[in-house]
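Case study 2.
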Amino acid sequence: MTYENLDAKLVNALLGDGRASLRSLAEELDVSVTTVSNHLSELEDQGVIEGYTPRVDYDSLGYDVTAVIQLKVEGHALPDITDSLREHRQMTSVYEVTGDYDIIAVGKFKDTDGMNEQIKTLLTDPDIKESNTSVVLNSVSENEQFELDVDDT
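Prediction:
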């Protein structure tokens, strides 16, 4: 077998089952266990694969309030505010963005009181000029990953 697209196929196989053994991956990809191990190590070293973690359903654990928080901040304070948001354990995503707002953060909370408390604490920062918070009513798709394109020609 040629190793063309092997890395993409390996990533796709892991997206299907992140706990797959080297042996099962080798069988699926029709290569040796050593080849899978070497390519997997390279992908990890390059930062393509950043880790192996469980997919947690926070709703089933009582974190059923999801908030999308948009912030306008003073330009010089952007790194400090994003760092602060990243340190909040319930913030699942923090983005620096273009457009009307500078930061978009997504957080998971057990109730609206917990959400409200965290937002009020956040808004005490004088470098935050404006905020807009939306509560998610229904999560249609969340934390989805997609398979890589593989050229099988």
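The chain has five helices and four strands.
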